[in-house]
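Input structure tokens:
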């Protein structure tokens, strides 16, 4: 894939001066110390303020990718974060500045949150997994209290059908393997859509169905900041609700699993041991782990392809779009088809 000129992308206008001016627009003044944080989807900066707001001197300003979410969808993310904090769950909500959590400047929507320190959790430690499981259950108890109205569901429509159509329509798939990729994807979709909770247009949440609840949505280890025992606020802090959606609870568990099948089974057991101290876990959802993994695989390719005009993407994903890349995607889809046809993980 080729990269267009950097000036064509909206983020080319988001200079350090614009970032500082955006904060000044809402009455926050940086002292000149600013650093970019690792984020591809949005642009995120750590900034030190001259005068603290609500006792916070170090803040994180997130400038949302233009066109991705509507203001109403971002507002639901913010409201969900505030609900979690009200329930004494260690999430990181945006600050209310001038009474609002979402602000606008020069065509960008942005929010400002308190900076939280921490490290990646040690997910080889079963005690850490159990601790994380307890907090995930508490997040899901809040998430189950009411539905999202504006934010979409995690299903095959948004994570497979639409990405597939976009990739095919835009010629993003290497010609040599396009037919093989489409065939493998169709076979995978048939297995994914055998699960009603993931099938587009299916009404679920009857008593005998797997429930859809509000989720973190992207609960991988990089979105959990861990503070060791003995320090203030020990345990996990959940950050970045940017991908919050409606879906099955297991979506927030499976990305914390790694290793071979035996290791994943042991880690899953520790997570669910902690989870069920606060909330029952429906074991039927374990059969969704490989379908959800497959949906993420499909969605990931389209996510990179759509953002190729963003200069950060060709630099960080130089291997994307080649014949070898797409052959690798075919091979992974074939592997996932086999996994979905096998026995699910057991806890």
């Amino acid at each position: 894939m080729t990269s267009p000129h950097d000036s064509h992308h909206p983020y080319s206008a988001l200079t350090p001066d614009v970032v500082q001016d955006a904060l000044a627009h809402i009455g926050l003044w940086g002292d000149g110390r600013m650093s970019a944080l690792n984020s591809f989807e949005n642009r995120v900066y750590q900034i030190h303020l001259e005068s603290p707001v609500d006792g916070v001197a170090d803040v994180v300003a997130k400038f949302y990718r233009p066109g991705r979410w509507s203001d109403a969808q971002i507002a639901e993310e913010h409201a969900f974060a505030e609900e979690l904090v009200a329930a004494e769950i260690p999430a990181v909500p945006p600050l209310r500045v001038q009474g609002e959590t979402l602000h606008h400047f020069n065509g960008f929507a942005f929010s400002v949150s308190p900076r939280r320190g921490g490290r990646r959790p040690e997910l080889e430690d079963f005690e850490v997994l159990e601790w994380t499981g307890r907090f995930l259950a508490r997040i899901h108890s809040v998430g189950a209290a009411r539905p999202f109205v504006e934010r979409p569901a995690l299903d095959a429509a948004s994570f497979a059908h639409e990405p597939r159509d976009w990739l095919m329509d835009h010629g993003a798939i290497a010609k040599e393997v396009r037919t093989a990729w489409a065939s493998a994807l169709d076979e995978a979709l048939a297995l994914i859509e055998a699960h009603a909770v993931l099938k587009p247009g299916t009404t679920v949440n009857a008593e005998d169905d797997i429930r859809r609840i509000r989720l973190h949505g992207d609960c991988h280890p990089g979105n959990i900041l861990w503070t060791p025992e003995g320090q203030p606020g020990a345990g996990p802090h959940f950050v970045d609700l940017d991908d919050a959606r409606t879906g099955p609870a297991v979506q927030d568990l499976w990305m914390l699993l790694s290793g071979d099948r035996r290791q994943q089974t042991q880690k899953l057991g520790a997570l669910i041991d902690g989870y069920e101290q606060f909330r029952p876990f429906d074991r039927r959802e374990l059969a969704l782990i490989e379908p959800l993994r497959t949906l993420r695989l499909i969605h990931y390719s389209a996510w990179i392809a759509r953002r190729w005009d963003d200069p950060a993407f060709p630099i960080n994903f130089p291997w994307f779009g080649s014949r070898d890349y797409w052959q690798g995607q075919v091979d992974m889809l074939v592997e996932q088809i086999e996994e979905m046809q096998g026995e699910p993980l057991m806890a």
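The first strand starts at residue 30 and ends at 36. Strands lie at 30-36, 43-53, 56-63, 103-105, 108-114, 213-214, 224-227, 235-238, 246-247.
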